Amino acid sequence: MTAVAPVIPRHVAIILDGNRRFARAHGLPTLEGHRRGYNNVKKIALCAFKSGVRILTVYAFSTENWRRDKNEVEYLLRLFRLLVGPEIDPLIKKGVKINFWGRRQDFDLKLQAGMKRVEAATKNNRRGILNICLSYGGRDEIVRAVGKIMRQGILVDKLSEEIIATHLDSAGLPDPDLIIRTSGEDRLSGFLTWQSVYSELYFTKKHWPEFDGEDLAAALRNYSKRKRRYGR
């Protein structure tokens, strides 16, 4: 009997949860948990693309995360600055296209310029697409999209789901087929509020810094067994 090839999701999104819990569980400083979580993004991105995933979207920093301890936020900002510097080169060399989603105006001008530089440098890459959500919230994304529509003078009788979708951060990309959340929380917490309506959900107790290629493979196998009906 011929084996059936697994169904690989085209677009996977991950809520990167559990850096601080990982640190506490291993007797490490909170900031070390964030450092390890940051390093894991690049590893899992390459694992995903090698597995056949074409688009990976990661929830790295929410609009609510600004309320955290000042020292913790500043450390995360330093990691983001590294992300738009030489540390992103391995992904660029692998042919990964990189986008940044969220409220860019919340960051300093140098970091905003770095985001633009990375996007420009990778816009023609075809190995896979990595979307990094920074200062992102699903409701905020919808509000920003509506603001763009209003500024363009689009009349209410011309409004449609398609019009809204083309003004979201994800414009031009398919909705996520699979959303993974690490660290044992079973909710989306404002991640891809518009795009997640028919996404399959997968929750794991593994903290993000310890989520590895085998864990990703397990999530993909689980997805492959599901039947997606889209309301039919």
**What number is the mean pLDDT?**
95
CATH 4th-level superfamily = Decaprenyl diphosphate synthase-like
Number of strands: 6
Number of structurally distinct domains: 1
**Mind summarizing the main beta sheet?**
6 strands, parallel
What structural class results from the helix and strand content?
alpha/beta
Terminal-residue CA separation? 30 Å
Morphology call:
globular
Q: Radius of gyration in whole Å, from Cα?
A: 18 Å
Low-confidence stretches are none
Multimeric status of the protein: single chain
Name of the CATH architecture? 3-Layer(aba) Sandwich
Query: What is the CATH topology descriptor?
Result: Undecaprenyl pyrophosphate synthetase
Order of helices and strands: EHHEHHEHEHHEEH
Query: Major sheet: order of its strands?
Result: 3-4-2-1-5-6
Count of alpha/pi helices: 8
Share in helix:
40-55%
Strand content: 15-25%
Report the CATH C-level class: Alpha Beta
